[in-house]
Amino acid sequence: MENIETGLLLMVVGMTTVFAILLIVINLGKGLISLVNKYAPEEEIAKKQVATASPLAFAQSGAVGGQETAAIVSAISMVTGGKGRVVKIEKM
Q1: pTM of the model
Q2: Which of 9, 28, 49, 85, CA to CA, is 20 to 30 A from 69?
Q3: pLDDT tens for residues 33-79?
């Protein structure tokens, strides 16, 4: 019975120590992140303006009508938040 008590005591002490060390590591990591963000903030990269093709250019190609093309270009712009662009429209 003495061996089981010693084993349980060692297990509790070991798990408590590991838990305490993990809490210390987490807090030190958060502190390091806040220091880096405070003294070395991320540089903002200037976004390059992407020229999107006009619906008229696709309508002239004859693949789809002008209103359909405008709807497709508008939907892609809304879904991608202005980051996507229509390159080619083909009828299937």
Answers
A1: 0.44
A2: 49
A3: 999 988 887 777 766 555 555 555 555 555 667 788 888 888 888 88
In the chain, what are the helix, strand and coil shares in percent, each to the nearest 5? 65, 0, 35
Alpha-carbon distance values, 80 to 6, 24, 88 (Å): 62, 41, 16
Around Cβ 63, how many Cβ atoms within 10 Å? 13
Quick one: which H or E segment has residue 12? helix 2-39
Closest C-alpha among 69, 30, 46 to residue 22: 30
Contacts of 64 (CB under 8 A, 6+ apart): 58, 72, 89, 91
pLDDT band at 8 (very low <50, low <70, confident <90, very high): very high
Question: Can you count the helices (H) and strands (E) in the chain?
Answer: 3, 0
